[in-house]
Amino acid sequence: MRHTPDEIWSEILENLNDTAQQDVYLHQVVPLSITADALNIAVPSAYTRARIEERFHTDIQRVLATLIGAQCALILTIDNSMSHSNEAPDETEIDGNTDQPLAENRTLTSNIPSPLQQNQTGLNPNYRFDTFVVDTPNRICHATALAVSENPGRDYNPLFIYGGVGLGKTHLLHAIGNRLSATQPDKKVLYVTSETFMNEYVESIVNRGSAQGFRTKYRTADMLLIDDIQFLQRKEGTQEEFFNTFNDLHMNSNQIVMTSDRTPNNLENLEVRLRSRFQSGMVAEIGMPQYEMRIAILRQKCQDHGYNLPDDVLSYIAEVVETNIRELEGTLTRLVAQATILKEELSLDLAREVLNDVGPPSPIQQRRTATPKAIQTVVADYFGIDVADLVSLKRTKELVQPRQIAMYMCRELTQMSYANIARAFNRENHTTVIHACKQIESMLDGDEDEQQTITLLLGQFR
Ligand code: ADP
Ligand code: MG
Question: How far apart (Å, rounded) are the C-alpha atoms in residues 448 and 115?
Fold first, then answer.
């Protein structure tokens, strides 16, 4: 079962009583993300948050429990930037008797740009330099990124940033773009993943009318930020097009910044001429955060989200989650969610209890050996379903996606053939598994929540 945060929020509003439906504050909410643990919504002020919590928290929680499950907490994050685009109503309106029909209010709500929504440059406004914690492992990357945002096309062109999953490559890339857009609004900044670039390129071939549009879009950028360039491997046609785009931009001293999970040299399935272009500027590695940096990041995230956590809890999280920053953030969110559900202060004891729990995947559990059985157990636990149901022939909504994820993980983590995976799930036909893998892959393309879920689940084994 998969709903977008917007769908969930609409459904919640529909299920609340009339007073709530008329409440102006509820209509200021911007749904941010939904996971099995928590619905995260943004509100423009502490006042709005307090008011919603006081009046509607129980009701919202009740609807959430029926939609997602009792484990799903409501988390309200304050986003001050919202109050500019969406002025809080006058005090006189506070008590609700705005006679505006609901439909009108709705439209109002959906017009407010979600902070996570990307604007036409493709940039996520939350990924900025001021929300990026700098320490030894990313100091050089950060310094060059900053320099590039101040003097694009000058000293480091291209800039090539590489490093492992969840270490902040995408964040930095957006930060560069956001900075340039803020300081030099006339500059045209373009952020894309290499997959989007490829898809648009393919589209421009299929639909010949759009070829010119494609070229113009990419070749007139003052700054091209292209994420996860490793996905261009083996895509020869797209490589050719990228090569030309690259040369065009570079010749005109337009800045190019790329990220990758490995060095240019290790992009083995990329044409040599591209690899050597990538190396011609600055190549910077982003490394794993050490303990102090993990603490600093946790503090930053608490500040971003308006959480207030005791120091011992932060130290504990930083001790147990060593792998990457995405996982660090995920663990923090999960703990806050649990504390909200339990209506308890987030104490060290509670944190220990939750993270040692067998329930949803915990980064500190020992890495397991990837067998179909172990994968099924981890996935079933995570989604709160029975393994027996997961491998049954039932096709209810709650089972289909977890099952596909489990199949996908078998493919990723084991050497098993499609046919053998099918058998492990009591299926005769191996095309079911192929279909499942395709489904998950296409879902991963662009859906950050899904990426996070899958990274967490795979992390149990890797
Ligand atoms: P990558 O692209 O390297 O896989 P991301 O840039 O998506 O990683 O980072 C994963 C998460 O961690 C994001 O939510 C990002 O904001 C956060 N993050 C990464 N590095 C930092 C940092 N140095 N300071 C603050 N947050 C960070
Ligand atoms: Mg990334």
Answer: 14
